[in-house]
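Sample intake sheet
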Amino acid sequence: MARSVLLIGVACLVVGCGGEVDGAEDSAVSSLGTDSGITTPSTTPTDESASNSGDGDGDATGDGDGDPAGDGDGDTDTSGVKFDLAEPDPGDGDCGDAPDALVQGKVYAPNMELPISGALVYLTSQNVEAIPDEVYCAECVELDCETPYTLTGADGSFSFPAHSGQGLQLVVQKGQFLRIVSLDVNPGMNQIPNDQSNLPGEWNPGAGMWIPRIAVYETNPDAVYNVLAKFGLGQVAGNGALVPGTEQFTLIDDNDQGAFMDDLVDMSQYHIIFVPCASTKYWGGAPNIPNGRIDNIRAYVESGGKWYATDHSNEYIEGPFPSYQQFHNPGMPDIQPAYTSNGTVLDPELLAWLEALPDPLKNIGGGNPTLFQLPNLTTEKNYSGIDEVSDVWVEDMMGQNVNVGHRVWVEGPCQSCTNPQLARPMAVSGQYGCGRMMYSTFETSSTAHNGLSPQELVLLYMILEITTCFDGTPPPPPAN
């Protein structure tokens, strides 16, 4: 029986930094540019031994009551949503004069169609740390009380009071997506054009733009590269497929038999690695994984990497992270026949985002499922089943017990499993050291098509969420 999961949303307030906006009724025009002040941070070493040094942030903070889980045992559950923001520093409570300006706009994906929820947006005159060009332990941005900021809503919108001034920087961040734009803030209303507040679609530090370094196995079906292109990380052909050569990520030949994963140095160049469905199906020795490769995957995730696998490739979750879940048939990674599941979205923030999407994105036609029956969600081409996910308890640096086990985003019945009416986890993510792993029982993208299907949208949302920062020192990984 799959365990139930408590999903905790995080709301952030700036204490003492609010107030009425003087002159907000007067319209003003913002002057926008692309120059940005950037500092290069020191990065967490990527070798396995160094990744336990605790120089990142973790999910293990509570509310000070010593028992965030509410069960009286002092344990901490890390299933809550994390953003690119640490707790604000209220200082002495005196944040200066009342703000005289209002900054508002909307954050979209690089494709300028998908709204981005939970993105950090703030205004600063200080230098902003760049995204390291390698795997690292992502630390939350620390903002003091005088820094105006907000998190975007489910529809991607943002609005916050600020002080007018020249030569400021508007910063938009979601995980390793970072955009910095020069901004003159005038008294009154400052409406930010959408093409100045969207997530960037390329790595271009000179223009104030960073994106995650991504490696994707080039396999078919489950062409994740098409989904990334439609998100805005590549050009898209008329049939919805990636235009070869335009991708802003690295494609790995799936004929390499997994050799890419046998080189930890090569893996550590990337923030996210995708090992979709059919990429591993025909490798020699499958579904067994060489021990050295398992060690590399663990070391990569522990040091801050984000690891993704789907259905046929479930051994690349089961092998490195066996204590997190129990697959229905671990000896054979394929369930035949593939099944369609009428599932349910469990995560409230994911549900709110899906509900806020405009109708044309909820129904892309072509016989694809729609999003008009939420929280019900139809997933297709499921080739695996999860019987249950487990609590995985580790001790953090403060001596608190922390649950780093899987968070269940979507659940549904497995028609090809024993007890086909049982609701099972279908899309999950867990924490391992300073990184996270993610798995879905369904293929993400079986055939090229225009638009993003419901399960492709779920993938993109989960990827953005698992790339967000830690707000305290992450606990060490569990003993294997």
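Comment: Residues 454-466 form the longest helix (13 residues). The domain at 27-210 is CATH 2.60.40.10 (Immunoglobulin-like).
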